[in-house]
Design goal:
This protein is an alpha+beta fold. It has 13 helices and 10 strands. Keywords: Transcription, Transcription regulation.
């Protein structure tokens, strides 16, 4: 039996009712614009009542489901749009441009983010029947957008419902998260997650990303990094760029600039001190690269952010 598009989104459809319930619950749980923490640490909620400008940020490995409004993520020259019909999966930490496209006081942008558990993905792969195990693909970007199916919507809604049942949350939330990971793995693009845990070049690049993240303030030698993850420098460069759209040095630079921005904004550090803290020896180089990424010199950009907060 086939369901046509009009039935799928009609007011009487079960899917529509579940989506409305999810939006209502997030509206009550995420009461302020920005990030809202929940009782379940891996799950965070976002709210916005106005569209935003394109802003650089580092996406951590996660599932992002927009429940109301829409958002756009840009990685290099590629644009990824996601709304209530689609979800975004990020498999490795990626510096990107982010923009909320649709939001208003009457219909605020609402989104939930669930941190991905790599160990759980590995365990599920071992448990899946061979006929259902997705096959690893060739090197692809470390993120993708896919359609939000009914089964995944149900699992996400069950997890959000548990936020109103604090006694049940510690016992049942891990089960809901396990199902969510399972639904992602058996979905149309589940093979993209397999790359993260199944060994091979993608997993080695993921280790390279972790290696850089742990040492981003130190000078980066590609030969040393390649040796640490058991790849040749040329293969590392090629695979790293395929996954992240940037070279290892560009990736390190973005991590440094993002952290310097955070230090200036939240810890009130002077730009020269922040630059030195993240590994820059030349304040003028820091200022040039900061302006190239964020669109304005450090002091001016931070002042604008504080005024708009």
């Amino acid at each position: 039996m086939h369901t046509n598009i009009s039935e799928l989104h009609s007011p009487a459809s079960p899917r529509d009712a579940r989506h409305k319930e999810l939006a209502a619950r997030l509206s009550l749980l995420a009461r302020v614009d920005g990030l809202n923490q929940t009782r379940f640490a891996p799950l965070t909620l976002s709210r916005a009542t106005t569209p935003t400008q394109r802003m650089p940020m580092v996406y951590q490995p996660s599932l992002c489901v927009v429940v109301q409004g829409s958002k756009r993520a840009t990685l290099g020259e590629e644009v990824f749009n996601y709304d209530p019909l689609n979800y975004l999966v990020v498999s490795v930490a990626l510096p990107m441009m982010s923009q909320i496209v649709q939001a208003s006081p009457e219909n605020p942008y609402l989104c939930l983010r669930l941190a991905l558990d790599v160990e759980q993905i590995s365990t599920l792969l071992l448990e899946l029947d061979k006929t259902r195990t997705p096959v690893a693909s060739r090197a692809t970007r470390g993120l993708y957008v896919s359609r939000l199916g009914d089964s995944l919507l149900d699992a996400v809604l069950r997890l959000v419902r548990l936020l109103d049942a604090p006694q049940e949350l510690p016992v049942l939330a891990p089960l809901a998260v396990r199902e969510i990971h399972y639904r992602l793995l058996i979905g149309d693009l589940g093979h993209r997650l397999v790359n993260l845990v199944a060994g091979g070049n993608t997993q080695r690049v993921s280790r390279a990303i972790s290696w850089i993240s742990e040492r981003y303030t130190q000078p980066l030698r590609i030969e040393q990094l390649a040796e640490a993850v058991h790849m040749s420098p040329s293969t590392l460069h090629h695979r790293f760029k395929a996954l992240t759209s940037m070279s290892p040095l560009q990736y390190q630079k973005q991590l440094r600039l993002h952290e310097a921005r955070r230090l200036m904004l939240t810890d009130d550090l002077d730009c020269a001190v922040a630059a030195h803290r993240v590994g820059y020896e030349s304040p003028s180089q820091f200022s040039r690269e900061y302006r190239r990424l964020f669109g304005a010199p450090p002091r001016l950009e931070i002042t604008r952010l504080r005024k708009s907060a």
